[in-house]
Amino acid sequence: WGGEEFAILATETTAAEAAQLAEKLRIQLQQQRFGSVGQITVSFGVAQIDESIETFGALFKQVDEALYQAKEAGRNRVQVYGVSL
Asked: Does residue 64 belong to any structural domain of this protein?
């Protein structure tokens, strides 16, 4: 994890609902101005716990892969693990 990464754990939420939440946050952050920094953008990786996930490490690996895909696709977007761009 880098210094600019964070996680949000949303219980009782589907991947689609989590992606909608992430998109709302992405838009809200993009619309804000942060002092001398100005405008920022954010990329989100989203994954859902299923029967194949046995540890938080496995979950965060999927999240990290989705985040990497979002960044590779141009940043400032939401990417759900296992969903093609």
From this structure: yes
Six-digit token string for 52: 């194949």
All residues at 6 or more sequence positions from 15 whose CB lies less than 8 Å from its CB, including other chains: 46, 47, 48, 80, 81
- Which residues are catalytically annotated? 4
- pLDDT of 84 reads 79
Q: What pLDDT is recorded for position 32?
A: 94
**How many domains does the chain divide into?**
1
- What DSSP letter does each residue of 6-66 carry, written as one string? -----TT--HHHHHHHHHHHHHHHHH--BGGGB-----EEE----TT--SHHHHHHHHHHH
10 in a structural domain: no
Give the distance, in angstroms, between the CA of residue 71 and the centroid of all CA atoms in the same chain. 10
pTM of the model: 0.88
Q: What is the pLDDT of residue 85?
A: 63
